[in-house]
Design a protein that fits this description.
single chain, alpha+beta, four-stranded antiparallel β-sheet, 12 strands, disordered N terminus
């Protein structure tokens, strides 16, 4: 995959896929990497046949592309359709990690949003460092996964 380097706000304009290698793909995942905060944001995660609905041919016919405007306007997969990979309980909290890496926290069966503040509180209580090896704060997915591993 080739990604254009021209950002619009925080997002890339277009993702380009080589037609010769696209046939080998089962799933399309578009990821925004924020180097300054050492964090990832999954912009799009779907099976190839779903992604192909958003793709258009390039002018030379050798590639297909997905405009980020199509991705950003697309409804995201509802959490209830995702597989739970890990689930732990701590006090009255339930912390779950889904197949796409999303971390969900529930308190007494009610979903907490945003979850980062709650994860930081739990991390402090159980002795999980909230900073990564570069002394930057961990993102939600990394912190949540570290807490789940500690409590498992």
């Amino acid at each position: 995959m080739i990604i254009e380097k021209e950002p619009v706000g925080s997002f890339l304009v277009t993702s380009i896929f080589n037609k010769n290698t696209l046939v080998e793909v089962d799933r399309v995942v578009l990821v925004y990497v924020n180097v300054e905060e050492t964090s990832l944001k999954i912009l799009y995660d779907e099976l190839k046949y779903e992604a192909e609905k958003l793709m258009v041919d390039s002018s030379d016919g050798n590639a297909e592309s997905i405009s980020m405007s199509k991705v950003m306007n697309k409804k995201r997969t509802h959490i209830s359709k995702l597989t739970i990979l890990n689930s732990v309980n701590y006090k009255n909290y339930r912390i779950q990690r889904f197949e796409n890496g999303k971390i969900q926290v529930s308190v007494n069966e009610l979903e907490v949003n945003p979850v980062k503040a709650v994860l930081r509180k739990i991390a402090k209580e159980i002795g999980v460092d909230i900073n990564n090896s570069n002394s930057n704060m961990k993102n939600t997915r990394v912190l949540g996964w570290d807490i789940i591993k500690q409590l498992s």
